[in-house]
Amino acid sequence: MVEQKAWKINGFIGILVVIVLIGVTIYSFMLEQIVLGIILTTIAVILASGIRVVQPNEARAVIFFGNYIGSVRESGFWYIVPLSIDRKISLRVRNFNSKTLKVNDIDGNPIEIATVVVFKVVDSAKAVFDVDDYEEFVEIQSETALRHVATGYPYDTFEEEGYSLRGNSKEVADELCHELQDRLAIAGVEVMEARLTHLAYATEIASAMLQRQQATAILAARQKI
Questions:
Q1: Are 17 and 45 in contact (CB under 8 A)?
Q2: What is the mean pLDDT for each group of 10 consecutive residues in the chain (225 residues)?
Q3: CA angle at residue 66 from 63 to 72, to 5 degrees?
Q4: What is the Cα–Cα distance from 208 to 80, expressed in whole angstroms?
Q5: Residue 160: what are its φ and ψ, rounded to 5°?
Q6: Which of 189, 192, 194 is nearest to 91 (CA)?
Q7: What angle do CA 201, 148, 157 make, to 5 degrees?
Q8: How far, in Å, are 11, 74, 86, 221 from residue 54 at the CA level?
Q9: Which of 139, 175, 152 minimizes the C-alpha distance to 103?
């Protein structure tokens, strides 16, 4: 699915047409033209079903008898295809704060890690039709990508060469952002930013790793002296 523009006109034109039809319908009943009045009433009800109000930073994916015929992204009062239904979707920038996950780093050490993802919908058709629930999709894929990235680095290098989760948080966040964008493109979502919000050793090894860090610092200081 690819988003496209839906047919629409100014909503006040649609309202005017409906009002005129209602006036003609009333006049027909006054002339005892019952059949004509019923026909005009039916037409007025059908035409009235095309009136929509679109809020700022909102899109409406229009569906006509099971077929996607386009989206309305411009805010305002619009008249769209009668008898169609629409799915409302927000285009606002949003945050997703992941739960604190417990994973093993590349060295097998259990760590706790969490992230915040800033995202927005850029393709309403993909968000509505290509995934069942795009918000749940963002949540699951964000946690999956975080686990995948976290297992590719050590928590700390302890003066060794190479990237680590603690020492290269920006590089890790950039990789997480790129991986998330690849995963969420199918849902029409743009990842604007991803940042680690929590990073620590798991409780069961935190004390031992703290002692290791202290010993490494003392050794490094002695070498400099």
A1: no
A2: 93 93 89 87 92 94 95 95 94 94 88 95 95 94 94 78 84 94 95 93 70 64 70
A3: 10
A4: 66
A5: -90, 165
A6: 189
A7: 45
A8: 11, 7, 11, 64
A9: 152
How distant, in Å, are the alpha carbons of 49, 70, 132, 141, 184 from that of 191?
A: 36, 24, 19, 12, 8
Which residue has 């002296």 as its token pair? 225
How far apart CA 109 and CA 103 sit, in angstroms, is 8
The CA distance from 15 to 160, in Å, is: 72
* Contact partners, residue 216, CB within 8 Å, separation at least 6: 158, 159
Beta strands in the chain (DSSP E): 9-10, 51-54, 58-64, 67-72, 76-79, 85-90, 94-97, 101-104, 110-121, 189-201
Res 48: pLDDT: 92
C-alpha 183/C-alpha 166 separation (Å) is: 25
What is the per-residue pLDDT for 121? 96
**Spatial CA neighbour of 103 closest among 181, 159, 155:** 155
pLDDT at 225: 72
Position 65 scores a pLDDT of 93
Residue pair 113/194 in contact (Cβ under 8 Å)? The answer is no
How many residues make up the chain in this entry?
Answer: 225
CA 21 to CA 122: how far, in whole Å?
A: 39
Helix/strand number for the chain, H first, E second: 6, 10
Distance CA 215, CA 113 (A): 24
